[in-house]
Amino acid sequence: MTNDALITALSHLVSEGRNPETMDIDLLSSLEIVQRINQQDQLVPLAVEKVLPEIALAVDKITEAFKQGGRLIYMGAGTSGRLGVLDASECPPTFGVSDKMVIGLIAGGPEAILKAKEGAEDSPELGIEDLKSIDFTDKDVVVGIAASGRTPYVIGALGYANDIGATTVALSCNPGSPIADIAKIAISPVVGPEALTGSTRLKSGTAQKLVLNMLTTASMIRLGKSYQNLMVDVKATNKKLVARAARIVMQATDCDTLEATQTLEQTDYDVKLAILMILTGLDVTTAKLQLRQQQGFLRRAVESNK
Questions:
Q1: Which of 81, 154, 155, 213 has the fewest CB neighbours in a 10 Å radius?
Q2: pLDDT at 149 over 70
Q3: Residues recognised as catalytic
Q4: 288 C-beta neighbours (distance < 10 Å), count
Q5: Which of 277-281's residues contact partners 24+ apart within 8 Å by CB, and which partners?
Q6: Three-class SS of residue 29?
Q7: How far apart are CA 252 and CA 229, in angstroms?
Q8: How far apart are the C-alpha atoms of 118 and 53, rounded to whole Å?
């Protein structure tokens, strides 16, 4: 695409427009600037609310893929790519899953996480190569993230994923974007022009983070990774998480610190197993069997032993 064509394309994007509410932002005090940004930020959850049905559909597809041994792959460039990497990296400690289950790919590779490599986003072939490098299959789900909705890296990846029959999801902040047209599911929260024109790490980035939170959290809940609203598959890999594990057991069972700690020690700090044992009086071996029979859903295991 020529420079003139790119300028024309950008001029039609909502996310690249000038915000009439912040035209005087360079004249304001620090407090007034952050107040104005905050006013704009308040529009983000309202925009996300409008696309909840599409988010829920994506959650259903991701959950189905996980059950069949598939993976969730995030792909993006710049801020969008970094947000995908962030969400993917938080799944193992939060939900006790393999770091291969949710993967974040960013244009330019791991180095682009810390240092901008914006030119990497211009290659659709690179998006295809990155998917092939992780042995992407039709069992997987790919979520292409691009505030503009026109990033070539993401477009290439989504096209390839469609060609092999995988589920494709587009997350952009512009209606009717190229990636929305390509993907089977389009999630397009329209947050409007940024407080600082074109700085899509602001409202657009916040909207993307909210959606990514929902995709993984809801999918993991659907897999039985929670009991009530407690994270019962959390892995106690440091002192803080050991304490959190004990607190979760106490919250779920109303037991004291001593009982929670002693039971966790019996289960090698398996929070879900410890809760089941305390609530039902089952021993470790029987509790493990009950959880396995209920596909890891703690609430079902508890209710079946009342």
A1: 213
A2: yes
A3: 90, 121
A4: 17
A5: 278/249, 278/253, 279/252, 279/253, 280/305, 280/306
A6: coil
A7: 10
A8: 32
Token pair of 265 as six digits: 């020690």
Give tens-digit pLDDT for 33-89. 999 999 999 999 999 999 999 999 999 999 999 999 999 999 999 999 999 999 999
Tokens of 303: 């209710």
Enter the tokens of residue 112. Answer: 């682009």
- Phi then psi for 23, rounded to 5 degrees? -65, -25
User: What tokens were used for 199?
Assistant: 């700085």
- Cα 157 to Cα 149: distance, rounded to the nearest angstrom: 13
Structure tokens at 194: 């940024």
Classify the C-alpha dihedral 132-133-138-141 as positive or negative: negative
Beta strands, E only, the chain: 72-76, 102-106, 141-145, 167-171, 185-187, 226-227, 230-231
Give the bridge partners for 170, in sequence order: 144, 186
Q: Which of 279, 272, 128, 149 is nearest to 208 (CA)?
A: 149
Residue 206 DSSP label: H
Half-sphere exposure of residue 193, counting CA atoms within 13 Å on the CB side?
14
Q: How many residues in total does the chain contain?
A: 306
